[in-house]
């Protein structure tokens, strides 16, 4: 096998291990149950992962016969809203596990034989990369379902690293054009493409995401609604995460806030949310070369010392915990920890072309969705890049969502 085939095989295996952890942590009753009307039963996510893998890699790329064409409609996310999925005649946990294993065996056979060139779907193993990212995205969704599940803790992980540097305050990002999006990242999805120049006027941006302590000060002064999973205790705010309730960690990024809540905080602080272009410029633009890099720290793939990704920890790390992941301008924790709401709708870049299908991104474009950037502690590195765009309804907060703030540079103001 070539290096690329080996890499794809490794990514598929690593990703399936995560799906297995998330679905074997609970019993069959918990797999079938709907833990929130916002979420699918975990057993739906599992079989849907297998069904998408079958559609794209077994049938389309591999040209093989269907494994279970009869269940396609049950696992088509466009046919059934999440709240309706528990009532469907879904595969049982045992059947779903057998189904995803059968599909995966065929996929490894396809991976050994199919030429990884000659058409856009197989070039650089794109379709395999898309399916890895799809499974990782559902793993993050399943992690959010675990967070909504009532009952004893079933997931465990080491605590995130402590803060080691002071990251208070803001940095000036100088005005001028930068390259947004990508035309070269092999596994980038259609909505991240193509690379294009955007002129961004000078602005200031927080060096770190807004913390629990900062958000608590806002709540105390305004009486605003606390984040999802917070509760009041005589001693202060508590947060429940994956079945464990503890006092909030003051210097960790606030998580589980909606877009309007993030915006209200920014206004209270005399600031605003960054736009999507501002966020990406802060994350990728290198003032020394004028080039946009893949990540804030450079072009290397994320390593554990760069960012809190991949469910290695079950919480955002305190701000200042990842100095090696900072951007050249000194903006920290743009990647990992919490998804960051930005004040931009989900719109296509100039020159956008739907690929490989309209339902991936194009049908979601418009003012109904707001963008989130940077990934969370529950996002895998395979599904997180400086160019990666996530989108959701502004009211959503069961996702691992936080934010940082920004402001315009006043006329005549220097850094
Ligand atoms: Fe999906």
Automatic annotation (TrEMBL):
Report keywords, A-Z. Iron, Metal-binding, Monooxygenase, Oxidoreductase
Enzyme class, broadest EC rank = oxidoreductase
Report residues binding gamma-L-glutamyl-L-cysteine: 82-85, 392, 396
| Record-listed E.C. numbers | 1.14.99.50
Q: Which reactions fall under this protein's catalytic activity?
A: gamma-L-glutamyl-L-cysteine + hercynine + O2 = gamma-L-glutamyl-hercynylcysteine S-oxide + H2O
Instruction: Cite the annotated pathway.
Output: Amino-acid biosynthesis; ergothioneine biosynthesis
Name its co-factor(s).
Fe(2+)
Domain called DinB-like: residue spans: 12-142
User: Can you give the residue ranges of the Sulfatase-modifying factor enzyme-like domain?
Assistant: 168-407
Query: Which residues take part in binding Fe cation?
Result: 48, 134, 138
By its UniProt entry, which InterPro entries does this protein fall under?
Answer: CTDL_fold, DinB-like, DinB/YfiT-like, EgtB_Actinobacteria, Sulfatase_Mod_Factor_Kinase, SUMF_dom, SUMF_sf
Q: What does this protein do?
A: Catalyzes the oxidative sulfurization of hercynine (N-alpha,N-alpha,N-alpha-trimethyl-L-histidine) into hercynyl-gamma-L-glutamyl-L-cysteine sulfoxide, a step in the biosynthesis pathway of ergothioneine.
Cross-referenced HAMAP family, in alphabetical order?
A: EgtB
**Family (UniProt):** Belongs to the EgtB family.
Kindly give the PANTHER family that the UniProt entry links to this protein.
Answer: HERCYNINE OXYGENASE, SULFATASE MODIFYING FACTOR 1, 2
Query: What protein does this entry describe?
Result: Hercynine oxygenase
Quote the gene name from the UniProt entry: egtB
